[in-house]
Design brief:
491 residues, alpha/beta, Aldehyde Dehydrogenase, Chain A, domain 1, Aldehyde Dehydrogenase, Chain A, domain 2, 2 domains, 6-stranded mixed beta sheet, globular, binds nicotinamide-adenine-dinucleotide, EC 1.2.1.27, Aldehyde_DH_dom, Ald_DH/histidinol_DH, oxidoreductase, Methylmalonate-semialdehyde dehydrogenase
Length: 491
């Protein structure tokens, strides 16, 4: 299905205390990567807008904390029903602002709903515990909300990345401040409206638009207790340092350059599609996309299959657009630089024509470059586009040395039929997530999402069981109700 692009610009507004309100700051346009047209506009939030929103969230959260978990969960269940009802409409909107295909837009939202389903299951999980520790004395562990928490999200998943945190943080009893990417802010209005319709009390979910200044004012606000961030490594590090310097809890996920170890014995049916779909899916604009193939031994038969699959993709139908014109230019220049440095272009997307009628959009075709040198820009710089670099390796040890020397740590996959070689890669990979014959090794819930090294600053993961400690406080209670005859150290 082709993406329905808004015909006239949508006014994108903050969502504060249950109302859609225009920010008081600078105006910004939202451009569709599909046709280069302005499809929305917003006004950034000023310090005053931010202060009002956070103060109201702070007040409202106090009563939300007293709502039993099962009652909070009922609202989240309604939220799921509404998102499922509006799935296509939201997928069209998020795809038109981010450049995804309709199928990718829908899949991203479904992945977000999977995290929501995990949040629904919290009511049935052991969120606390109690035991008698000595005669007449019990110790109890309780999970309590933090208060007001904030999340800052990137352009590439306008619904999925925010949905990593919205359901879990709200279900645990927090108030939520969201600063969406200014490049893809429109989807936030659908999510805010769905939460309101679901019955979430006004003031608990506030959306504040803007760029760097808005982010910094949110982090600095004294009533914000914890900050989640997903975006590029440079900004993730900045957000982490700024928040932790103020004594706040911060989990900041950054960029990536993901490696695939390709071995000759790999299953041909899984390999061509697995690797091609990994680097071309979402037009390469995802932090789990394959960026570098570490080709061990004679794997040319696999590489041919990757090329065949990638060159069969139809732009605008099977593969979407790139977020901005400047990013398309960056990708084309990077490919040209790599070629000059000695890379062999096996598939060249630089001149792939735009889909009919979308000439003003931001398009580039899949590109595969062979004989890339391990320390070159093509091997090390995050491109964030449908460009795959192949590095020829002497053996698996050489391949893992290259993987280990890269600063990022989101994903590493291996394609092989050998269990023991797969195990070697699992053990030696420097990443938070590893795949075996899987091109995009995003764990399904309740297994958590989170990288390592320069792909993640802070402790824990952003979803799943590993995220609960981040979005809550633990309280330990020791109780004695009656005097006991025998003495013990607590008497
Ligand atoms: P970005 O870092 O430019 O922006 C992310 C957010 O930070 C946006 O909301 C933006 O407004 C804000 N921001 C930008 N500059 C800022 C600054 N100087 N100070 C404070 N805030 C600032 O990232 P992007 O271009 O929107 O997204 C692409 C990047 O995100 C890629 O590097 C990709 O790998 C990464 N990403 C990582 C993950 C992950 O899970 N690790 C997931 C998705 C995307």
């Amino acid at each position: 299905m082709s993406v329905k692009i808004p015909a006239t610009p949508i006014p994108c507004q903050n969502f504060v205390s249950g109302k859609f309100l225009k920010g008081s700051g600078l105006a910004m346009d939202v451009v569709s990567p599909y046709n280069g047209q302005i499809i929305g506009n917003l006004h950034a939030s000023t310090a005053k807008d931010i202060d009002l929103a956070i103060k109201d969230a702070h007040e409202t959260q106090k009563s939300w904390a007293d709502v039993p978990l099962k009652e909070r969960t009922k609202i989240m269940f309604n939220f799921r029903q509404i998102l499922m009802r509006d799935l296509d409409e939201i997928a069209h909107l998020k795809s038109s602002e981010s450049g995804k295909t309709f199928a990718e837009g829908k899949a991203g939202l479904m992945k977000g709903i999977e995290v929501l389903e995990f949040a629904l299951s919290l009511q049935n999980m052991d969120l606390g515990g109690k035991m008698e520790v000595s005669r007449g004395v019990s110790c109890e562990f309780r999970r309590e909300p933090l208060g007001v928490i904030a999340n800052i999200t990137p352009f590439n998943f306008p619904a999925m990345v925010p949905m990593w945190t919205i359901p879990i943080a709200l279900t645990l009893g927090n108030a939520y401040i969201w600063k969406p990417s200014e490049k893809t802010p429109l989807t936030s209005m659908k999510i805010a409206a769905a939460l309101q319709e679901a019955g979430l009390p006004d003031g608990l979910f506030q959306v504040l638009h803007g760029g760097k200044d808005t982010v910094e004012a949110i982090i600095d606000h004294p009533q914000v207790k914890a900050v989640g961030f997903v975006g590029s490594t440079k900004v993730a590090q900045h957000v982490y340092q700024r928040g932790t310097a103020l004594g706040k809890r911060v989990l900041a996920l950054g960029g990536a350059k993901n490696h695939i170890v390709l071995l000759p014995d790999a299953n041909p049916d899984l390999t061509g599609a697995g690797i091609s779909d990994s680097f071309t899916g979402c037009a390469g604009q995802r932090c789990m996309a394959a960026a570098v193939v570490l080709a061990v031994g004679d794997v040319d038969h696999h590489i041919q299959k990757i090329i065949q699959r990638a060159q069969s993709l139809v732009l605008g139908k099977d593969m979407g657009a790139i977020i901005s014109k400047s990013q398309v230019q960056f990708l084309k220049d990077a490919i040209t630089r790599a070629e000059k440095e000695g890379a062999k272009i096996l598939l060249d997307g630089r001149n792939t024509p735009a889909p009919a009628g979308l000439d003003h959009g931001h398009w580039i075709g899949p590109t595969i470059m062979d004989n890339v040198a391990p320390n070159s820009e093509a091997a090390t710089l995050e491109y964030f586009g449908p460009v795959l670099s192949i590095i020829r390796c002497r053996d698996i040890t050489h391949a893992m040395q290259i993987e280990n020397s890269n600063p990022y740590g989101n994903a590493c996959s291996v394609f092989t039929s050998s269990g023991s070689l797969a195990e070697k890669v699992i053990r030696q990979a420097s990443t938070g997530m590893v795949g075996v014959n899987v091109g995009v090794p995003v764990p399904r819930e309740p297994f958590s999402f989170g990288g390592a090294n320069a792909s993640k600053f802070g402790h824990g993961d952003i979803t799943g069981a590993q995220s609960l400690d981040f979005w809550s406080n633990s309280k330990k209670v020791t109780m004695k109700w009656e005097k006991q005859d025998d003495s013990n150290w607590m008497s």
